[in-house]
Inverse folding.
């Protein structure tokens, strides 16, 4: 059974369809890239997958025991978020929030996980720095570490290289590819089809579904 599947899915806002009759399957271990022009409905599709908005019709289904709150999510940043006054460690640790349940404090294991993901992203030297002081590439590594704290199975990335210079973009793509090679299912939204073709094993063009 697929990890995530869309069945006759129609999505949009206030009953007005943006994309209609979508059908696809994402299997464990896929590097699944959703491509299309700006405004084509890619982010709406991702929000629907995450359960942040309801479909107009059809359904998103999860298999192999995957739950929505077990998916890591790296959204596009707003200017307000880029200026957030917290330490790198605090932001990464907040990725464990869904796993807190009714507890008020992070466990020793969750703190260790945050430190492990900080190390995995190569930002140990930034652990105590204020997030707002970092470069765009450094901030993306922090947010990727945060998303990893929420999942061991699937990661959704919304335009993860937007606004980054070419060298940092290449580094980010390599980081994501390594996570996929380590067994994490990657679902990425991008309009950068030229670059993602070299990484994704499956590309889904929403323009073909309109």
């Amino acid at each position: 059974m697929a990890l995530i599947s869309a069945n006759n899915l129609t999505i949009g806002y206030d009953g007005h369809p943006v994309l209609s009759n979508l059908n696809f399957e994402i299997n464990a271990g896929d590097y699944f890239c959703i491509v299309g022009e700006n405004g084509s409905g890619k982010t709406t599709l991702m929000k629907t997958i995450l359960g942040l908005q309801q479909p107009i019709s059809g359904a998103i289904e999860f298999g192999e025991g995957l739950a929505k709150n077990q998916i890591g999510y790296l959204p596009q940043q707003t200017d307000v978020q880029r200026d957030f006054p917290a330490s790198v460690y605090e932001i990464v640790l907040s990725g464990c929030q869904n796993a807190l349940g009714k507890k008020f404090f992070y466990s020793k294991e969750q703190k260790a996980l945050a430190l492990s993901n900080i190390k995995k992203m190569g930002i140990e030297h930034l652990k105590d720095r204020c997030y707002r002081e970092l470069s765009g590439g450094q901030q993306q590594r922090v947010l990727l570490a945060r998303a990893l704290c929420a999942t061991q199975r699937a990661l959704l990335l919304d335009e993860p290289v937007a606004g980054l210079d070419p060298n940092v973009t290449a580094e980010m793509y390599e980081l994501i590819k390594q996570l996929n090679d380590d067994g994490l299912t990657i679902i990425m939204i991008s309009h950068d089809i030229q670059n993602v073709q070299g990484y994704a094993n499956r590309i889904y063009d929403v323009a073909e579904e309109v």
Observations:
- Residues 11 and 55 are 5 Å apart (CA to CA).
- The mean pLDDT is 88.
- The domain at 1-66+155-163+184-210 is CATH 3.40.50.300 (Rossmann fold).
- Strands lie at 4-13, 16-26, 31-35, 57-62, 71-74, 154-158, 185-190, 202-205.
